[in-house]
Amino acid sequence: MFGGIISWFTDLFRSLGLLAQKRAKICFLGLDNAGKTTLLQMLRDGRLSLNAPTLYPNNEELQICGIRFRTFDLGGHETARRIWKDYLTAVDGVIFLVDAADRTRFEEAAEELGRLLDDPALAKVPFAVLGNKIDIPVAASEDELRHSLGLYTHMTSGKYVNKGEQAVRPLELFMCSVVKRMGYAEAFDWLAKLV
Ligand SMILES: Nc1nc2c(ncn2[C@@H]2O[C@H](COP(=O)(O)OP(=O)(O)OP(=O)(O)O)[C@@H](O)[C@H]2O)c(=O)[nH]1
Ligand SMILES: [Mg+2]
Fold first, then answer.
1. 67 forms bridges with which residues in the sheet?
2. What are the phi and psi torsion angles at 99 (to 5°)?
3. Residue of the CA atom closest to atom 4 of ligand 1
4. Number of domains in the chain
5. Which residue windows are transmembrane per the record (predicted)?
6. Which residue of 31, 120, 158, 171 is 20 to 30 Å from 112, comparing CA positions?
């Protein structure tokens, strides 16, 4: 309760320019083809772009929900995954994208996500899992994806927790479509309250 009041005042003072702007480092992770670079470019330019698979990490500074996010877009193909850990030191949040329309790769996505969730260095880091591409008619439902990724054992309850109020690592699933510009804003709202 006090945490809520304090964060309300902090947000108010920040919006009045009386407090320095919050900064946060976030990493965009997930298998290749999940839509990480498409999302990052949508956030940056407000439009869709065609991207080749990401070979080298990119970083951008973006203003989202009043926070200066330093974002790292790391490739998701197998060799690129080996360097994820080099970028995860002092990370404030993880955006983990999954292609919700590609059931053939749910198991692989669950394994990679599980590895990250088990990493002691990330034990307190909030994870927003994005079930992307729900514009594709065969995409999994939120419930199916939650089960397929084994999220029930890791989930926090409720999407609207405040920083410091949760006993366990905050983790939520947001269904979205970058192409249709829907669903991901909620994930950043949620993350912005936690970093
Ligand atoms: N239908 C649909 N396609 C999408 C959506 N978001 C991304 N894509 C497509 O998915 C493909 C892969 O997108 P990328 O952003 O390059 O994927 P990535 O996660 O950065 O992949 P790597 O760089 O290889 O790790 C592209 O063809 C995108 O146009 C979406 O919301 N809906
Ligand atoms: Mg990419």
1. 22, 64
2. -80, 105
3. 133
4. 1
5. none
6. 158
